[in-house]
Each structure stands twice: as structure tokens, then as C-alpha cells.
Design a protein that fits this description.
The chain is an alpha/beta fold and 268 residues long. It has helices at 18-29, 41-53, 68-81, 105-133, 154-176, 220-227, 236-247, and strands spanning 9-12, 33-38, 57-62, 87-90, 136-141, 181-188, 258-261.
Amino acid sequence: MLNDCTGKIALVTGAATGIGLACATALAEAGARVIMTDIDAARVSEAAEKIVANGGQARALAHDVVSESAWQSVYDDIRAHEGGLNILVNNAGIAVGAMVTEMSLEDFRRQNAVNIDGVFLGTKHGIPLMAETGPSSIINISSIAGMVGAAGLSGYCASKGAVRLFSKACAMECADAGFNIRVNSVHPGLIDTEIWGKEIASIAAQNPDLMAEGANKIDVNTFSAVSVPGGRAGQPAEIAQGVVFLASDASSYVSGTELVIDHGQISR
């Protein structure tokens, strides 16, 4: 089976919705046993139950990725119940849209806490357990905004760019230390998720051409029509398939690089 993850143990953060949920679902379908975490305990528990009902192996934990003690508790729990970890998907993230002159320091720091600190803590405390387990893969979800700039998203671009270079450095550190752990970043393009109706919607007023008629938030389909070759927004499952590839032994020689999944958006 291509991209087979049978027998592997996977941890996916921010797994209640969107790309995180799609990754957890796809990894379970590929044979992995998945631990799904999210700050929304009720929603992630419901998501895990659906995967189990469909024949997958999954369980859920409440988890605030900005808390170091929470990360330590999650790994202690995995060590006690699963005995190891092969796959870490650092997916949890937020997007705060604002011009740099209008963004508060509080929002800038809050975004970095989730998008950068969460990835740092997950990687820092995950590597020892993964090194004990055997061949492993860390997959950090960045964005094409971590590769090119976007007006109204300067803070978000900064956080996602940090994820890209952090991943590269960690890949080198793991290799130099003799750990059989690969580290890569994934850079989704314009994906149809709930993010467009949340905090990122604050940039809608600056981009009226990207809103559907009568709407007060960015419309993902309108945005796609003008920014993505072919005019189509991506689906979370399409990102998840790239994650499964990086999680599986099919990508055994892939480390320290970025996988861009954007239908050519940044190639324009």
C-alpha cells in the first residue's frame, strides 16, 4: 500500500477541524493509531469518535499548545498508553489579519505563541520520545504565507516563515545527533477551512473584491477565482494526503524541506 502507516503512532494537534481533522482522518485510514489534540475538548472528542466509528484507531486529548506543561502531560500520556511516537503533526495555528501599523503587540505575541511556540514545544519534547521509538517523522504545518508576503498578514507571514526555517534547522539537528527522525514543513495554499470566517476575516474590509456580494468576510471561492491557477480552493483532504506521504516510509529520504500544496498559487 502506497503511503502505508500501519502500526505507526501519530499525534496531530489542532485536530478538531479543518486540516488537522483531515490529517488525523487520513492517517487513521492509512493504518496509524492517532492521538488527536485540540483546545476544544468536546469537538476533538467527537471527531475522534467518528474516526473510530469508521473503523480507525483514534483517541482525543484536550491540549493547549502554548503550555509547556500541557505538552509534557500529553507526551507522558502517550508514553503510558501507546509506548512511543512515530509521527508528529504540529498543525494547531491561528491567523490574525491586520496591517502591521494596526496590529496590537498582544495579537502579534498571541499569534506567535500558537504558531511558533506551539511548534517549538511539540518538537522539543517530542524528539526524545520519537528517538526512543524508531524511525519517525515530524511534520510542521506552515503556509505559503511562510514563503511569500501578503498584505494584511504580516504577523501571520512572520510566524509561518519561522516554522519553515525552524523545521529545516531541526532536521539538521536530528540528523547530526543520529536520530532517525525526519523533519519537514507543509505549506498549504488557499484551503477551504473555517479560518476564513474567524480572525483572518478582519482583513476583509481591506479587500472588498475578495468578498461575495453582501458578505462581511472573505469568500474563499471568490478569493480562489482571482488568486489560484484554475480558480479552485483546495480541500483539507488534499493537504492531508501530502502529510500522509511525509509520515510514511515512502518519504524515507525526505527531510529538511518544504512541501508546497497550493495548485501553483505562488508560482504566478
